Amino acid sequence: MIIFFKSLLFLSLSVLTYCDNPFSTQPIFVSTQLDEKHNYRLPNNTRPLHYNIHLTTNIEQADFDFYGSVEITLEAVENTKNLTIHYRQLTINEVKLIDVETKKEIKFNEPHYDEITEHFVIPVESELVNGTQYLLSIEYNGTLRDDLAGFHKSSYTDDDGNVVRQAGTHFEPHNARHAFPCYDEPSIRTTFDIVITHSNSYHAVCNMPVKSIEAKENGMVATHFERTPKVQTYLIAFVVSDFSSVSFEKTDGILYNLYAKPSAIRDGQGDYGLFTGEKILTNQEKYFQTKFSLPQMSQIAMPNFGAGAMENWGIVIYMQDLLLYDESSENLQEKHDVGHIIGHEFAR
Questions:
Q1: Tag placement on the chain: N or C end, fewer CB within 10 Å?
Q2: Is residue 245 within a helix (H) or strand (E), and if so which, with residue range?
Q3: In total, how many domains does the chain have?
Q4: Residues in binding site
Q5: φ and ψ at 8, to 5 degrees?
Q6: Chain centroid to CA 281: how far?
Q7: Any domain includes 136
């Protein structure tokens, strides 16, 4: 988010130039033309009602491929012969479309993908009917990105010199489509059920608390999370890691967690961020006279995170240097900076 705003400021300044006449003091504003050849917005002839997402990763083995399935319950808001959603850098293996009420499969012609707009268009043989609900199921696979966007990989070196890997997300502004096919526009909110299958030596963290953990074959487990309230795709987040954590639950029922590499938690570097976060959120609730609406607030210190920090709902992700603080250092500037960034992210 911090880097995003710096880039936005640079872009704003870059369009301001001056005349060739060196004596002129009149600025010229250079307009940036929109791409009129392509419509990047979804047609909005259907809308999502709910997502069921299941992702599988073996990141602990340095396997950067991931596998996914998504079921989108959707509604047609007008009669249409095209169903359009987003995806990016995914391989689509299977697509099914079913009428929710009749359970009949909807036939469609070969879907097509626009690499520029990242629209995945499913042309149905008969019209989708206004007001009717459908279930779109997609099986797919992808690769964790190395540019710290979308569903990406991260790593740190432990005390023994071993490289330990993690998988995390950064979906703002439109990178959720790299983790799962979706309606990836910020004006669209809906609910999510998320399941992540991973090694039993790792754990998964998401916007909502863990509902259950299911044992699978070959040392894998499936972590099921509670259903989210209605939320935009860019605020969904999850991390799969070997991180340790510190946590406590307030009397009002909110669970506060802070996750970081085990050595940082062992050395107490997460304590200040955890308890400062609780104080900040409590004071923000009083100031805005609004109760925080989720049952948990997790903070995660990632070894690599391109945005500096990101205010995902209920799971704020930071570059680790912006969240961890060593009390023995007595560096008041660093202490101030940690509190400042937590306050900024929580307020958003």
A1: C
A2: strand 244-249
A3: 2
A4: 344
A5: -65, -40
A6: 21
A7: yes
Identify whether 27 is part of a domain: no
User: Which H/E stretch holds residue 241?
Assistant: strand 238-241
User: What are the structure tokens assigned to 245, written together?
Assistant: 């954590």
Among 60, 172, 311, 345, the active-site one is: 345
| pTM of the predicted model as reported, rounded to 2 decimal places | 0.88
d(CA 119, CA 186): 16
Residue length, the chain?
348
Q: β-strand 296-302 against 315-319: which pairing, if any?
A: parallel
Secondary structure of residue 249 in the 3-state scheme: strand
Regarding whether 235 and 291 lie in a shared domain, the answer is no
- Indicate the SS3 state at residue 217: coil
Strand order in the sheet with 163-170: 150-157, 163-170, 238-241, 203-206
- Give the H or E element holding residue 152: strand 150-157
114: number of Cβ within 10 Å: 13
Amino acid (1-letter code) at residue 230: K
Q: How far is 116 from 40, CA to CA, in rounded Å? A: 8
Instruction: Please tell me the distance from the alpha carbon of residue 287 to that of residue 124, in angstroms, as a whole number.
Output: 51
Q: Which amino acid is at 66?
A: F
Residues 76, 225 within the same domain: yes
Structural domain ending residue among the three candidates 209, 240, 271: 240
> Which range of residues forms the domain containing residue 96?
46-240
The Cα 11–Cα 13 span in angstroms is 5
Can you say which residues are annotated as belonging to the binding site for Zn(2+)?
344
pLDDT, one tens digit per residue, over 318-327 is 999 999 999 9
Handedness of CA 300, 302, 307, 309 (dihedral sign): positive
Residue 206 lies in a domain: yes
| Catalytic residue flag (residue 139) | no
Q: What is the pLDDT of residues 215-263, one digit of tens each?
A: 999 999 999 999 999 999 999 999 999 999 999 998 788 999 999 999 9
